[in-house]
């Protein structure tokens, strides 16, 4: 057989080889051994370094359970992160429940689990300049991370119920992180900061020392884990099972104690009903990035 005949025979053999035929029908996300990393997007509610360090135990647990590399990713701000979720840049994402509900309804994500501890939004002031009433916010600024954040959307309602209208009686000032918002409050650059209580507990000691919680403003369901539709239902269930197993492990118990997230649970109908009431305002705040 000449060289041309041998080449043709080799090509035919490769085309008919069963392993290649089987792989052609598989989705990359379904194969744990193809070397592709499972990407996990983390909402940037903490500094990048702190966020990635805090969630490294989850990455390790997922790698071990799924037999697949895991890559933790985040973004510089909330809007960029949500846009990346919408664009499908993450296989798994951890984000606030109103963002999770939006992309589950409109972009084909599947909700997996949520943190047991609610997101507790608190108004924090400088310890040297405590507040006495909501009227102390009149003509003042409130430091926040992002106007589309769930605690901010819900806080606007609470403030309105107490006679304060956004951009008339007070204004929000966006900062790059909860720590920055706290810093603005304790240094007097803003009259108060609106942050989640869990991030206050994780703040630098000097910020905790100089800050005081004036009052709780909102309580909403905890952050949600969601899966992109490119992961098969079996793979999504494997991720969910791995997260639940992690929760029960010593490493998981240490993680939930450190982060104050309290563990994992299934979303309920009441959770979804509450979040659905906030979706119109969520869409309005994200109108520049929605497609």
Structural class: alpha/beta
Counting DSSP H or I runs of 4 or more residues, the number of helices is 12
Average of per-residue pLDDT values: 88
CATH class of the largest domain: Alpha Beta
List its traits.
6-stranded mixed sheet; 12 helices; D-Maltodextrin-Binding Protein, domain 2; 5-stranded mixed sheet; alpha/beta; 291 residues; single chain; 11 strands; 2 domains
Task: Explain what you see.
- The chain is globular and about 60 Å long.
- Residues 3-33 have low confidence and may be disordered.
- The protein is an alpha/beta fold and 291 residues long.
- The chain has helices at residues 3-16, 18-24, 48-66, 78-86, 97-106, 150-161, 178-186, 197-201, 205-210, 233-248, 250-259, 269-285, and strands spanning 38-42, 70-73, 92-95, 110-115, 119-126, 140-144, 170-174, 192-196, 211-220, 224-227, 264-265.
- It is built from twelve helices and eleven strands.
- Helix 6 (150-161) links the parallel strand 6 and strand 7.
- Helix 3 crosses helix 10 (233-248), helix 3 packs antiparallel against helix 11 (250-259) and helix 5 (97-106) packs across helix 12.
- The protein has two domains: 33-118 and 222-285, D-Maltodextrin-Binding Protein, domain 2; 119-220, Periplasmic binding protein-like II (D-Maltodextrin-Binding Protein, domain 2, 3-Layer(aba) Sandwich).
- The strands form two sheets. The chain has a six-stranded mixed sheet.
- It is 46% helix and 20% strand.
